From TrEMBL:
Lineage: Eukaryota, Viridiplantae, Streptophyta, Embryophyta, Tracheophyta
One GO molecular-function entry: adenine phosphoribosyltransferase activity
Protein's name in the database: adenine phosphoribosyltransferase
GO annotation terms (biological process): adenine salvage; purine ribonucleoside salvage
Subcellular location: Cytoplasm
Length: 191
């Protein structure tokens, strides 16, 4: 679901967020239209508006865990967690977390990767939100959901700043709700 479908249609913040995202053609490879959120971060008002929209949505959902996907999920996740009174749990690439971890492998359009989480960071029956900057195919979000559910958490929703229409219906998220603020600009998005 896009934010515009969630009662925010016509909200000028959404257009400002979209306009603040720089598109870099043919990065990191030909045909990819890279959606660069670093330009959004340069404007404190737009950055705050982005975080505030998520906080307004999740404030009353009794979420106790915000799980951010490395690396750009780390930009939005901690602020959202603080805003809703939840803990932040980083989901990292392999060999980045000290201590005991559990991992989940997933497919990318150009290979495979893995996400890891500290053992004990999330408890059974905790209500979790998964956050990242962009979703294209849903593979990384699906791995995050699997990782959290393996430890007994209830994933309430996945959320991204930028989302491709129709990704929530591709089956990878196994019926989990997906909330996205804006659509990518350009022909083929990536990051």
């Amino acid at each position: 679901m896009f934010a515009a479908e969630d009662g925010l249609k016509g909200d000028p913040r959404l257009q400002a967020i979209s306009d603040a995202i720089r598109v870099i053609p043919h990065f990191p490879k030909p045909g990819i239209m890279f959606q660069d959120i670093t330009t959004l971060l340069l404007d404190p008002k737009i950055f705050k508006d982005t975080v505030d929209i998520f906080i307004d949505r999740y404030r009353d959902m009794q979420i106790s865990v915000v799980a951010g996907i490395e690396a750009r999920g780390f930009i939005f996740g901690p602020s959202i967690a603080l805003g809703i009174g939840a803990k932040f749990v980083p989901l990292r690439k392999p060999r980045k977390l000290p201590g005991e971890v559990i991992s989940e492998d997933y497919e990318l359009e150009y290979g495979t990767d893995s996400l890891e989480m500290h053992v004990g960071a999330v408890q059974p029956r905790e209500r979790a939100l998964v956050i990242d900057d962009l979703v294209a195919t849903g593979g990384t979000l699906s791995a995050a959901v699997n990782l959290l559910e393996r430890v007994g958490a209830e994933v309430v929703e996945c959320a991204c700043v930028i989302g491709v229409p129709g990704v929530e219906g591709n089956g990878r998220l196994r019926g989990k709700s997906l909330y996205m603020l804006v659509e990518p600009r350009g022909l083929h998005c990536g990051y």
